[in-house]
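=== Structural record ===
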Amino acid sequence: MLKGIDERLSLPMICYQAMDAGYDYNPIYEQVHRMGHRSIIAYNKKNESEAIGFDKHFAPTCFREHSYRYDSYDAKRETLKYTRPKECIDCPLANEGICQKVYKVKITTDLRRYAAPARGSQAWKTIFKRRTAVERVNAYLKEFFQLNNVR
């Protein structure tokens, strides 16, 4: 369906594809990336173990398990920029050079885990909330126009 939309419609104003966790598959992320759009898809854990050195939104963590803060996205290099957590300002490890001030991650290393804007950021949450308005319209059409029975 994504390929058909991309081939038939030229919609330069669309830059995000917001979907629920049912669409959390690598081929979907790859197709959205090939289209030049950004994927805002809820993450489905799928019996995966917890990533060491990262929090639940895949932001890097310091040695004391404080999450780095999402700062910005560089579209030219396709990298997410994270900055040192506030809790690490007085940390003795930061003075010894063990903790990094800035942490950059290319989204192409794992399109499923890294999205632009970063998962868990306020911008990501705002874009994902827009999806619920569309879901309400779909529910309205199904209920009042009998679109549940269409095959």
